Structure formats: structure tokens, C-alpha cells
Amino acid sequence: MVKVFAVIACMLFLQGCIHKIVTVPVKIAYKTTKGVVKGTAAVVGAVIPDGDDEDSEKKDKKD
To answer: Tens digit of pLDDT for each residue in 7-38?
Structure first.
């Protein structure tokens, strides 16, 4: 019975450590992925224009 209480006490005391072990790698992976996606979107936007220039040129010709 004493062993059961010892295990429960250890679980309660180490709960914060377990939380850190799980959440820190997830946060790092999220931030890394977020940066990669933003960088990829910027590169794709630079290589493939979205057509805003064409729309403004058509407006200028109409005016």
C-alpha cells in the first residue's frame, strides 16, 4: 500500500516535468514549420506573381 502512495506522490510531483517534456518539442516543431511555410510562401509569391500588376495596367488603359 505504501508503494501505491509513493507512485501517486511521484506522479503528482513530476507532472510539471512531464508537461514540459511533451510541450517543448511540440512548440519548437510548430515554430519551425511556421517559419518554413512563411518563407516558402514568400518565395512562391516572388516567383509566381499574383496578377495585381495586370489589373492595374488594365485600369490605366481604360482611364
So the answer is: 988 888 888 777 788 888 888 988 889 888 88
C-alpha angle with apex 13: 26 to 23, nearest 5 degrees?
5
Quote the cell numbers at residue 40.
516558402
DSSP per-residue letters across 1-63: -HHHHHHHHHHHHTHHHHHHHHHHHHHHHHHHHHHHHHHHHHHHHHHS--SHHHHHHHHHHH-
Q: What type of residue sits at position 2?
A: V
For 19, the grid coordinates are: 508537461
